[in-house]
Amino acid sequence: MSGKTKRKYQAENMRISKSMTRPLNQIVKTLKPGYTEKDLLDCYREYYPYVWEMLEERYRLYRAKDAFLKRKGKKTRYHPVRAEQFFFSLQKVKQLLSRGYRVKHEREYDEAERVRLELAYRQKREHKNAEMRRKREEQHLDLQEIDPGFLDAMMVAYHQRGATTNDKMEICKEIQKFDCEKVWAFFWKLNDSERNDQIREYAFHVLQRIGHYVRLRKHFKGKQKSYMREEADLVGTPELLAQQLRQQKSVQYVKMYDLFVSHSYQDKEQVRSFVKKANAAGLSCYVDWTADREFLRRSLVSQYTEEVLKFRMQHAKRLAYLSSERSRASKWVAFELQYYRDIVQREILMIVLDGEDSHDFPIVELLDAYVERK
After folding, report:
1. What is the dihedral of CA 265, 301, 150, 342, to 10 degrees?
2. How far is CA 35 from the centre of its chain?
3. How far apart are CA 215 and CA 218, in angstroms?
4. Total domains present in the chain
């Protein structure tokens, strides 16, 4: 099996090499005579930043796999090389840097044509890269770029004996709401070794969607056990979540946040901006329509929704009140503020988005001012 895996890795090297040939042929036409190794490398990295990012991440991933094999006393398998070394090992790059090719390039050089080609290619690549950046930003829109502190507990629960396919899928859906190295490593491992087809493919799509290098592990050979073909059938409701929160063994019970964000959904863009700033300050946030989106759909609002929100407030260190014309008119925001002030009795911070607010909560302009309170 190790020989087959190694051959697959080498075949992928060849596919990547082939995919880089046409771009390199286009790039060299934009270079002036006397171009150097650095010129060619810098241009490729500028025009294809996401491919370069993939090469670097691929190197780190396979280096980690070889290190794991070595720790287990097994022979290393991949022997990956750094992105720059891989780039300069390509036959096309060697050709373009050869003395003969550079002499030919100088002999046939036309400055006006080079300028025209460079302008056209730069515009094309800027458009492509902007589109890729937009797609990535869309996928990261509601991801929190932080380790909230409960991921380890969830990962332990995933591997506990007796965890069902539904349990594991629920854990995966919770973990994928965060974007940090711990999350990537978890899903890379599932993509490599999880025997259940549905969960393994889910891990692959999570990594692919947020822009990470990943190759889908195909079906395992040998006898197919029932677990491999099982499919999760999660149907979340506020009532189901409320029941789980009453059970201390539920993975939902371990979720704790630095800030419970009390807001109006109509201010969702400002909420997203606030969460990004909070994450940058090292703070995790509870926002109902992202943190519990599988359960708290607005079409299913009931008394159980209120029960869930009470629990989440009890398990948040502070409440951040985003005050706006919309949130000041919201009965849900009024309920959250009253419950947190009278029952939870922990600090409420107010961020005024527009207008004036008559509450006497401490007003926070920047989250940096709050970090010292942690």
Report:
1. 80
2. 38
3. 9
4. 3
User: Would you say residue 360 lies in a domain?
Assistant: yes
The residue out of 199, 229, 259 marking a domain boundary is 229
> Could you list the active site residues?
336
Looking at the fold, whether 25 and 134 belong to one and the same domain comes out as yes
Contact yes or no for 312/257 (Cβ under 8 A): yes
Domain that holds residue 213: 151-229
Q: What is the pLDDT along the chain (374 residues), one digit of tens a residue?
A: 467 778 889 999 999 999 999 999 999 999 999 999 999 999 999 999 999 999 999 999 999 999 999 999 999 999 999 999 999 999 999 999 999 999 999 999 999 999 999 999 999 999 999 999 999 999 999 999 999 999 999 999 999 998 999 999 999 999 999 999 999 999 999 999 999 999 999 999 999 999 999 998 877 777 778 888 899 888 889 999 999 999 877 899 999 999 999 999 999 999 999 999 999 999 999 999 999 999 998 888 999 999 999 999 999 999 999 999 999 999 999 999 999 999 999 999 999 999 999 898 888 775 554 444 44
Helix (H, G, I), strand (E, B) or coil at 315: coil
145 in a structural domain: no
Out of 229, 258, 277, a domain closes at 229
Does residue 249 lie in a domain region? yes
